[in-house]
Amino acid sequence: MVENLGKFLKIRDWEKKLLEIMSNITNNRFVLFVLSIVILLLIWESIGRVLDLVHLISSPFIVGQEIVRILYSLTWIEHLLATFGRVTVAFFVSIFVGSLIGLLVGLTDFWENALGSYITIGLSLPDLFVVVVVAMWFGVSTMTPIIAGVIIGFPFLATSLHGAIEDIEVGYYEMAFAYNIDKYHIAKDIVLQAVLPEMFSGARYTFALCWKIITLGEIIAAQNGLGHMIDSNLRSLNLTGVIAWVAIFTAVMLIIEYGIFQQAEKRLFNWREDSKGVITV
Amino acid sequence: MNKNNQNTIKNQSQESAGIKVDSLTKKYKTEEGSETVFENLSFNIDSGDFVTLIGRSGSGKSTTLNIISQILEPTSGTVEFVDAEGKKKETTLGHVFQEPHLLPWKTARENIEFVHKNNPNYSDEIAENVLDMVGLADHYDKYPSKLSGGQNQRVGIARALSVDPDVLLMDEPFSSLDEITAEEMRGEMGRLHMDLGKTVFFVTHDLAEAVQLSDRILMLGDGHIYDDIKVPFDRPRNMGSDEIGEFNAEVVRRFNDL
């Protein structure tokens, strides 16, 4: 396109090269994301310096120093592992419960009638309300954030699966019936395969949700974890510390999103014409 | 046709079966009682014939085909598959649908393999042979999303041929394709029929398509077959010829007779 534009407008070689670089940047989602972060940090740092509010608003440079200090102290490993352990348990329990309910509700009218309303209620419950009630029931414990994560996480997956099952093309069943395909292969090769993309994106969303809920749960009712560290910095009015821990939390989520989920999606669903990642954080 | 065609056709048996449709009635339950699609529908199709059932939307063409396909149960009446002597015969059916209903997560080869789940004698060679036959030799491992509409329908036809059917049942298979692709597919279908000699029961609402492909045209309307026309031309047919043009006009006139 740039080449054609070059011929048409008679632009010079270096201008053409610059246009090519710009075109590559604007078409690359990751590069655009990194670039926007850099611009945001520069604006933030500039405001701090120009208005002499570097410490009050914790400029990126100061936050960067704090992040380096935390990373060197190695305390982040203990807290990250604590949070990650809770997120993993909550995620897998949510996946199990959500998939089971989603499949039951999607495949049978009885379970749709019996459980459909619970999914609706689950989706409409405010996250903070669930975390507070669970914290009051179970106190400050490892289980509190996990239970809250499961309660908030599973309805999303159940809804995704329910919708995916209802959207399966009737023609697939007709074709399978016409060629006498048995129920096992219909379930394995049609139903499961058809719902897999929705299940995967539901799982991604549930994972991101579990991270957020577990961190919230840790702020309210835990003695370690990223959420607990955000809370303890907040209590001592250390804004730099809060932002530094939030930045570590966000970085971990992005690594999981780009490094694991998007790569897995590319491999699993390469048959999809529109197979590309979506940030669910 | 593909250069490998002559070899691959050897792997298809030349067997086919006739169809005897006797007093077929189909009624659907409605809130008011029941609605009759057709009543006492009877016709025979000889083994190896290409017969097209034509009718307006809602006339019951697809319902008839689905009953013959055993996808639907008739309210009353019978469908029998018979050999050349008129004796009842165990029959393998190949189905080509309006949309190919290919599983998008399976490649062309895997889509064909899917309908052989209960076939212990299945081998990759079967899929490759039929894909060669429909001109998709270079597309074995492509997903449907990477193939054009016409190519997907070819995979659908290859899938139907892969079971080595005695009867091929086709429900408006070219109606969702653009006219150029549909024309190409008609030519291909006519050649396949000449080479394989399978019985074909074809449903369409396109009169010219029926004239181009069929040995006989059955016209369905008002719940009964109101005309049965023999097409007296050899294949391949030149649809631009005056003779066929006049015949086509005659078919249109008789179609509008109802």
Keyphrases for this structure?
heterodimer, A: mainly alpha, MetI-like fold, 12 helices, about 85% helix, flat, B: about 260 residues, alpha/beta, Rossmann fold, 6-stranded mixed β-sheet, 3-stranded antiparallel β-sheet, 8 helices, 9 strands, disordered N terminus
Structure description:
Chain A has 2 domains: 2-51, no CATH class; 68-268, MetI-like (MetI-like fold, Orthogonal Bundle), CATH 1.10.3720.10. Chain A is mainly α and 281 residues long. Chain A has helices at residues 2-9, 13-27, 29-50, 60-73, 75-107, 109-124, 127-138, 143-166, 170-178, 183-221, 226-235, 239-268. Chain A has 12 helices and no strands. The radius of gyration of chain A is 24 Å and the shape is flat. In chain A, 32% of the residues are buried. Chain B has 258 residues and is α/β, with parallel strands linked by helices. Chain B has a domain at 3-10 and 48-68 and 164-256: P-loop containing nucleotide triphosphate hydrolases (Rossmann fold, 3-Layer(aba) Sandwich), CATH 3.40.50. Chain B has 8 helices and 9 strands. In chain B, strands 5-6-7-3-8-9 form a 6-stranded mixed beta sheet, sandwiched between helices. Chain B has a 3-stranded antiparallel beta sheet with strand order 2-1-4. The chains are: A mainly alpha (281), B alpha/beta (258).
Overview in brief:
The complex is a heterodimer of chains A (281) and B (258). Chain A is mostly helical and 281 residues long.
Annotate the secondary structure layout:
The complex is a heterodimer of chains A (281) and B (258).
Chain A: H1 2-9, H2 13-27, H3 29-50, H4 60-73, H5 75-107, H6 109-124, H7 127-138, H8 143-166, H9 170-178, H10 183-221, H11 226-235, H12 239-268
Helix pairs in contact in A: 4-12, 5-6, 5-8, 5-10, 5-11, 6-8, 7-8, 7-10, 8-10, 10-11, 10-12, 11-12
Chain B: H1 5-9, E1 18-30, E2 33-45, E3 50-55, H2 61-68, E4 76-82, E5 93-96, H3 108-114, H4 124-133, H5 149-162, E6 167-171, H6 179-196, E7 199-204, H7 207-213, E8 216-221, E9 224-230, H8 242-255
Helix pairs in contact in B: 3-4, 3-5, 4-5
